[in-house]
Automatic annotation (TrEMBL):
<keyword id="KW-0804">Transcription</keyword>
<dbReference type="InterPro" id="IPR001647">
    <property type="entry name" value="HTH_TetR"/>
</dbReference>
<keyword id="KW-0805">Transcription regulation</keyword>
<dbReference type="InterPro" id="IPR009057">
    <property type="entry name" value="Homeodomain-like_sf"/>
</dbReference>
<dbReference type="Pfam" id="PF00440">
    <property type="entry name" value="TetR_N"/>
</dbReference>
<feature type="domain" description="HTH tetR-type">
    <location>
        <begin position="17"/>
        <end position="77"/>
    </location>
</feature>
<protein>
    <submittedName>
        <fullName>TetR/AcrR family transcriptional regulator</fullName>
    </submittedName>
</protein>
<dbReference type="Pfam" id="PF16859">
    <property type="entry name" value="TetR_C_11"/>
</dbReference>
<dbReference type="InterPro" id="IPR050109">
    <property type="entry name" value="HTH-type_TetR-like_transc_reg"/>
</dbReference>
<feature type="DNA-binding region" description="H-T-H motif">
    <location>
        <begin position="40"/>
        <end position="59"/>
    </location>
</feature>
<dbReference type="InterPro" id="IPR036271">
    <property type="entry name" value="Tet_transcr_reg_TetR-rel_C_sf"/>
</dbReference>
<dbReference type="InterPro" id="IPR011075">
    <property type="entry name" value="TetR_C"/>
</dbReference>
<keyword id="KW-0238">DNA-binding</keyword>
Length: 202
């Protein structure tokens, strides 16, 4: 292919931000309607009248496309939190989780099931969606250590992110225990903050 032809082909396949959002909406709609198995490159291409080759060129694989759509559709939970104290940061993190709870249940259920059974999706989600949230929590903890609030050798530091994010995954398994209650503030005051040597946030 000549240089001119290659340039023209690249121009034709370039995806605008508006077009990208349209493609992401199609992915999320397919997830809600039929779960992860219902999402195919062919299905997204047909629904959006986009060339399948363009999807592969832009995202390479289905898991990459799905995780990109999920990342674009949600604001980070913890990225903007900085209250000046670790108890304040963790309380704000708990409130952020509570604010997200119950939104788009069908989508979260579909992704949660697929996460268990598709290692390629699991790897992509960890990289694109989960790792930034863990990094934001770890940054809260780093600031607390720098301020002298928490000892850097405290073993509980490594459990804060797993606890905060883990509650999102297992809360429904214990819904009878937590009926009518928000478990995260209790987790903070009864478990995490004492383990970190800090007073309750409330």
């Amino acid at each position: 292919m000549s240089t001119r032809a290659a340039t023209a082909a690249a121009r034709r396949s370039r995806i605008t931000p508006e077009r990208e959002l349209e493609l992401y909406r199609a992915v999320l709609d397919l997830l809600r309607e039929g779960g992860y198995e219902a999402v195919t490159m062919e299905g997204v291409a047909a629904r959006t009248k986009c060339g399948k080759a363009t999807l592969y060129r832009q995202w390479k694989t289905k898991p990459r496309l799905v995780t990109a759509a999920l990342a674009k559709s949600r604001r980070p939970l913890f990225g903007d939190i900085d209250t000046g104290t670790l108890p304040g940061d963790l309380r704000a993190a708990a409130e952020a989780v509570a604010g997200r709870r119950g939104r788009d249940t069908e989508l979260m259920e579909a992704v949660g099931q697929a996460y268990l059974h598709h290692p390629d999706l699991r790897e992509a989600l960890r990289e694109t969606v989960i790792a930034p949230e863990v990094a934001a929590v770890d940054e809260m903890l780093h600031r607390a250590v720098e301020r002298g609030e928490v000892d850097a050798a405290n073993p509980a530091l490594g459990w804060v992110a797993p606890c905060l994010l883990g509650v999102l995954r297992v809360e429904r398994l214990f819904e009878d225990r937590f009926a009518g209650r928000d478990p995260l503030p209790e987790l903070l005051d009864a478990v995490l903050l004492p383990a970190l040597g800090l007073p309750p946030a409330s």
